[in-house]
Amino acid sequence: xxxxxxxxxxxxxxxxxxxxxxxxxxxxxxxxxxxxxxxxxxxxxxxxxxxxxxxxxxxxxxxxxxxxxxxxxxxxxxxxxxxxxxxxxxxxxxxxxxxxxxxxxxxxxxxxxxxxxxxxxxxxxxxxxxxxxxxxxxxxxxxxxxxxxxxxxxxxxxxxxxxxxxxxxxxxxxxxxxxxxxxxxxxxxxxxxxxxxxxxxxxxxxxxxxxxxxxxxxxxxxxxxxxxxxxxxxxxxxxxxxxxxxxxxxxxxxxxxxxxxxxxxxxxxxxxxxxxxxxxxxxxxxxxxxxxxxxxxxxxxxxxxxxxxxxxxxxxxxxxxxxxxxxxxxxxxxxxxxxxxxxxxxxxxxxxxxxxxxxxxxxxxxxxxxxxxxxxxxxxxxxxxxxxxxxxxxxxxxxxxxxxxxxxxxxxxxxxxxxxxxxxxxxxxxxxxxxxxxxxxxxxxxxxxxxxxxxxxxxxxxxxxxxxxxxxxxxxxxxxxxxxxxxxxxxxxxxxxx
Length: 498
Ligand code: BES
Ligand code: ZN
Ligand code: MG
Prior knowledge:
The chain is 34% helix and 20% strand. It is of the alpha/beta class. The longest helix has 26 residues, at 161-186.
């Protein structure tokens, strides 16, 4: 269950627990020292007893002997003088949540911005945001909810509660976007299919002032989106192309476009995947899920820019009507593709979605998100998403937001060399790389590039990061919502400031 609320106070709540910080050299942060003085050295005595290291994000808790405080939670702040980034502030809040969630119903985080070398305006808000992100959990289908969780309210101590509150309002709306992404990525494929996801997009966003257009199979046939339609043809679920418009900017201003791969289930098609782990392919719509959550965050915060979100929704299934290996399709761009492997379907779907987006909306920037290749997990593990771009400046801007926010990306090359791998004898290109070329994630990106003209474009391969099988600092096991905060920050930093 998500915590009920985050508040900002200049006095700790009575009958709650309190979180304080301790540095690696054993010294106490400002508020910790105050409590220590007031309560008969209770903190220094206990850290000594516990031999607490103060290492960054280590934590322990002890029961308080004082009437007004239930428990103390002690968090390691690392080296004295360390400057905390937004990412580390989120981690700090999340660490407190994790340490306290089973102990008490309410906690006050008494770690001052000054102790973290951060600004008093945003520091408390980011700490609260981290706790909020960590408290989300997908328990919809569990008859017995996790009864061990007690924590319901988190407060952050600050000398300027109103300012922190204002900053938090924006972050809270980003969290709502992240939670929407996590929810649709977590839902199984019998619940999330093209039509139902399109419906969710409409229900979630129309009321926020987002114009939601839904193209069906007939519309896409007219547009000659045969690469996308070929993937969908084996499924009894009709494909949908959802177009989300947020018009917060001047009507003459070109939009920034986001395109998401939305394969609601990827069985592999006739090139069927092995059974082990196939269930994970319910998450193959995470790119579209991210676009959906991002648009929600943008609309809730009423960003003064124009944004287009395109969700390309299909189900990849084997059947008597399914596409066969060896089939040749003519994409909307006019280029022909030999489908040598029906499991390399994401690039087929994106080929038409990218072409449609750039020709219809002439965006100033186009960014796609996709669980495109297993090879990206081999290259970058679960730590980084793969970033590809035809523009260095755009790539740098995405990397800058990525470092601040802590949703990590690593840039990989796009070069002509890899074109050799996808040239086909029988058509303009083939959808899998030749064995001699390798570099599966790059070949896939190079394939997408053939459907991008003169627009600044980036492709983010999120196959390794959209879900996690370990409990992470700011996210419980399951869908992460990767990309929502990153791209929101990218928009906010680069397009909303004059
Ligand atoms: N949806 C998969 C990629 C994927 C793999 C996402 C693992 C998340 C985890 C994609 O459609 C796919 O099947 N790609 C193939 C491409 C290959 C046939 C060239 C792959 O990566 O094996
Ligand atoms: Zn796929
Ligand atoms: Mg596939």
